[in-house]
Amino acid sequence: MRRGCEEARTRRIxxxxxxxxxxxxxxxxxxxxxxxxxxxxxxxxxxxxGLMVPALLLLAGKSFGISTxxxxxxxxxxxxxxxxxxxxxxxxxxxxxxxxxVGVVLGAFIATRFLSAEPVSFLPADxxxxxxxxxxxxxxxxxxxxxxxxxxxxxxxTIMGLSSLHWPSLIASISFFIGGLFMVHVLGF
Length: 189
Fold this sequence. Notes:
This protein has helices at 2-26, 30-37, 42-60, 68-77, 84-87, 95-114, 130-149, 154-163, 167-187. 10% of the residues are buried. The protein has nine helices and no strands. 72% of the residues lie in helices and 0% in strands.
């Protein structure tokens, strides 16, 4: 009973926020909404991302992470699977994770296609070649393998894990940054 009340409360809060944002966009409150179109400083966006973690935990009893959506898709597409990884996952109860990922992808598409002052390309031109496609495929495999091996993705470990003071998330986050810096120098970006 309590969980249903919390979910209804969470839905009301998000509905109110979405309604207010849409109303401000429709009425063209340009003077009061100018700040939303500018890059936000780290000292504003960082704490907002950090506050998302306790809000998600307290309001919905859920933990933030993106990579679990792959497990969700696998369990949803193969409901009769014998693999424990999919069989033991209740995809109907965790549909919100898939909605989150679809929202991230859709939001990024809308932002780059319709809200950006200058066109943003999907990939650098170098990746539209055989070598580029091979790099993307190998990189995608390594990211997927690393995500499962580390028991979570960068957002799960760095945002949720560090906020929850999990020691393995600190090690994983440090490894993500070291690996990212190394690959930037190897690929020459």
